[in-house]
């Protein structure tokens, strides 16, 4: 099978050391590269990234919890978040038999050089297998199988003040953006979002669902869809909705696909990283396609780091981009599909600085 996308440096190192990877039925955990399926004895793969799962050529599982099955060992592509690594290892300790090997592979900047300091029982000593491509490959073995774990064992909740309502109960899991709370950019966007009337709203790159849930609590007649590429984020978003007695559609995707409908409102704090790497592709695709997923007079509201080239892309797509607010790090932008009177929010157009 051919794969046009180049392998990541950790995967290149892993395949060069394939002779050291023993076992007949391995679980690949968080694998970014479909090409690895051809060379290793992978019985199943556990994906936390919907885009990576989509392109995996063999059996795969997308979700926040580990797949069921019997495995001889596992290969874990280290995420950048230490808490997420702890959760994944705890899940493997409950899934694999005693003595099973787990190979850890990751870029050196991912923290793999110091992981031996954070690995706790029931894992044996961490042994280095190889270095290369600015990455390392390590192996360790499970000393004793652990009792099953539950995702909620790793749940963190925060109460976010939302006067005059009761505080919003915000749920988060390891690996979710801004874990375990809310980032400054999203907080800035919340300060400037209007109170929308009834309609359909998409929270793109929703994370734990703070933007959509906040707006939905203000206006219960809003029908909100929550889209994110991360299984951990979607699990956290579902828990946020549950804690606040809200309903919403959850969508696992890394883009605005043609199958998605048009919305009255889209809100977002678009990402510009995939794992360790700077990655503008999700934000670029989103902004180039947002207009066609807005109904006439529909509004796009987003916040972004000021250095990002999002305003230029918004202008290319919408013909205009309004800067609603800014500080020394973030800016809030607004664009409207066919700029007319504000029929959705029912408010007078405020004075705004235009680009």
TrEMBL record:
List UniProt keywords, sorted A-Z: Cytoplasm, Methyltransferase, rRNA processing, S-adenosyl-L-methionine, Transferase
For molecular function, the Gene Ontology terms on record are:
16S rRNA (guanine(1207)-N(2))-methyltransferase activity
The record ties this protein, via Gene3D superfamilies, to: Vaccinia Virus protein VP39
Q: Where in the cell is it found?
A: Cytoplasm
Q: Does the keyword Nucleotidyltransferase apply?
A: no
Q: Which cellular component, as a GO term, is one annotated location? A: cytoplasm
Q: What is its EC number?
A: 2.1.1.172
**Transmembrane parts of this sequence:** none
Please list the reactions this protein catalyses: guanosine(1207) in 16S rRNA + S-adenosyl-L-methionine = N(2)-methylguanosine(1207) in 16S rRNA + S-adenosyl-L-homocysteine + H(+)
- Give the InterPro entries listed for this entry: Mtase_sm_N (IPR013675), rRNA_ssu_MeTfrase_C (IPR023543), RsmC/RlmG (IPR046977), SAM-dependent_MTases_sf (IPR029063), Small_mtfrase_dom (IPR007848)
Q: Does rRNA processing appear among the keywords?
A: yes
Residue limits of the Methyltransferase small N-terminal domain? 11-155
The record places domain Methyltransferase small at 169-333
Show the coiled coil region(s).
none
Q: What is its main location?
A: cytoplasm
| Class of the enzyme per the UniProt entry, highest EC level | transferase
The record's subunit annotation is: Monomer.
Give the record's family classification: Belongs to the methyltransferase superfamily. RsmC family.
HAMAP family, per the entry: 16SrRNA_methyltr_C
Its function? Specifically methylates the guanine in position 1207 of 16S rRNA in the 30S particle.
Q: Which PANTHER family match?
A: RIBOSOMAL RNA SMALL SUBUNIT METHYLTRANSFERASE C (PTHR47816:SF4)
Q: What is this protein called?
A: Ribosomal RNA small subunit methyltransferase C
Organismal lineage: Bacteria, Pseudomonadati, Pseudomonadota, Gammaproteobacteria, Alteromonadales
């Amino acid at each position: 099978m051919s794969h046009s996308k180049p392998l990541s440096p950790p995967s290149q190192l892993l395949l060069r050391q394939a002779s050291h990877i023993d076992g007949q039925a391995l679980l690949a955990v968080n694998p970014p590269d479909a090409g690895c399926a051809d060379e290793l004895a992978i019985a199943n793969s556990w994906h936390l990234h919907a885009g990576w799962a989509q392109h995996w050529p063999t059996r795969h599982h997308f979700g926040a919890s580990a797949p069921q099955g019997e495995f001889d060992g596992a290969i874990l592509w280290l995420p950048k978040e230490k808490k997420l690594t702890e959760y994944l290892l705890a899940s493997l300790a409950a899934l694999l038999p005693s003595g099973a090997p787990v190979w850890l592979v990751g870029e050196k900047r991912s923290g793999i050089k110091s992981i031996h300091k954070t690995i706790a029982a029931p894992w044996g000593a961490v042994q280095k297998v190889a270095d290369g491509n600015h990455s390392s490959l390590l192996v360790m073995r499970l000393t004793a199988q652990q009792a099953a774990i539950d995702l909620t064992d790793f749940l963190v909740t925060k109460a976010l003040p939302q006067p005059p309502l009761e505080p919003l109960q915000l749920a988060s899991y390891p690996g979710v953006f801004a874990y375990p709370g809310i980032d400054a950019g999203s907080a800035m966007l919340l300060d400037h979002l209007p109170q929308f009337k009834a309609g359909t709203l998409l929270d793109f790159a929703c994370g734990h669902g703070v933007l959509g849930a906040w707006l939905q609590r203000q206006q219960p007649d809003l029908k909100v869809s929550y889209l994110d590429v991360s299984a951990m984020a979607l699990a956290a978003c579902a828990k946020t909705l549950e804690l606040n007695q809200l309903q919403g559609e959850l969508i696992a995707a890394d883009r605005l696909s043609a199958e998605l409908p048009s919305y009255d409102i889209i809100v977002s704090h678009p990402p510009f990283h995939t794992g360790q790497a700077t990655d503008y592709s999700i934000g670029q695709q989103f902004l180039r396609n947002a207009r066609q997923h807005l109904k006439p007079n529909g509004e796009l509201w987003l916040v972004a780091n000021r250095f990002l080239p999002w305003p230029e892309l918004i202008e290319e797509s919408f013909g205009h981009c309004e800067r609603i607010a800014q500080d020394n790090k973030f800016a809030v932008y607004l664009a409207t599909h066919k700029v007319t009177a504000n029929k959705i929010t029912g408010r007078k157009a405020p004075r705004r600085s235009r680009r």
